[in-house]
UniProtKB/TrEMBL annotation:
Gene3D superfamilies: Creatinase/methionine aminopeptidase superfamily
UniProt KW keywords: Aminopeptidase, Hydrolase, Protease
Superkingdom classification of source: Bacteria
Matching InterPro entries: Creatinase/aminopeptidase-like, Pept_M24, Peptidase_M24B
The species this protein was found in: Aquitalea palustris
Sequence ranges assigned to domain Peptidase M24 in this UniProt record: 19-175
Designated name of the protein: Aminopeptidase P family protein
């Protein structure tokens, strides 16, 4: 690996793979706790306030990226687009949660999609995002693909499953806080096989005709380390 690529995977002196796993697990725990409290009739700002309070009760050190919660049509938005604070969750609706939280000096980043009600297509969309994430993770473990090849594969698999992949969302670095000092760029632009425990694989898909989508993200860890 070149020096430039190695710098993109640099970590700090405090870095611990075990602590990265812990941060990942705590962040997913928070995602699940928050999702269990979200109800139809709640708006996105109320959900965000609920999330912040839940994280505080859990004893987080800090938030390292803004809390993102999207309802319904807003599930098509990307990370940098603002929430719609007045957007209300319907009785039969879809939503996702994306959290970036520091635990014990290490960055957790987790996101998942949930459905309220009985809309079968929405349930299928939420499940497909997680399934696609797993397929891409397995490809990484089995073939040692570069980050760019992983997202090419993700787009192919999404189409085969009947969904459209949002290629504006290409994953990113994490490590002991703050990872941003390494200027690592996107996983989807990384020209080597990503190392374990330092990259977030993000998957965002949309329904081919209806105005909603689903999101799932997790830390790339080899099966022996997860």
């Amino acid at each position: 690996m070149s020096d430039a690529l190695a710098q993109q995977e640099a970590v700090g002196s405090r870095f611990s793979l075990a602590k990265m796993r812990h941060a990942r697990d705590k962040t997913f725990e928070a995602v699940r706790l928050i999702a269990a409290q979200i109800r139809p009739g709640m708006d996105e700002q109320q959900a965000k306030d609920l999330a912040r309070a839940t994280l505080a009760r859990m004893g987080m050190e800090r938030i390292w990226h803004g809390i993102i919660i999207r309802f319904g049509h807003s599930t098509l938005k990307t990370f940098k687009q603002k929430i719609d604070p007045d957007n209300v969750l319907g009785e039969h609706d879809i939503f996702f949660i994306d959290l970036g939280v520091v635990w014990d000096g290490h960055e957790g980043d987790a996101g998942a999609t949930f459905v309220v009600g009985q809309d079968g297509d929405m349930h299928a969309c939420a499940a497909a995002a997680r399934t696609l994430w797993q397929l891409v993770s397995e490809k990484w473990q089995q073939d040692g693909c570069a980050g760019s090849a992983l997202y090419d594969y993700a787009a192919e698999q999404a189409a085969a499953m009947g969904w459209k992949l949002n290629l504006d969302i290409k994953g990113h670095r994490v490590c002991d806080f703050p990872h941003a000092i390494y200027q690592a760029g996107s996983l989807g632009d990384f020209a080597a096989c990503p190392d374990t425990g330092v990259w977030i694989l993000e998957i965002q898909i949309r329904h081919p005709t209806l105005p909603y989508g689903a999101f799932y993200e997790d830390l790339l860890l080899r099966d022996t380390e997860s």
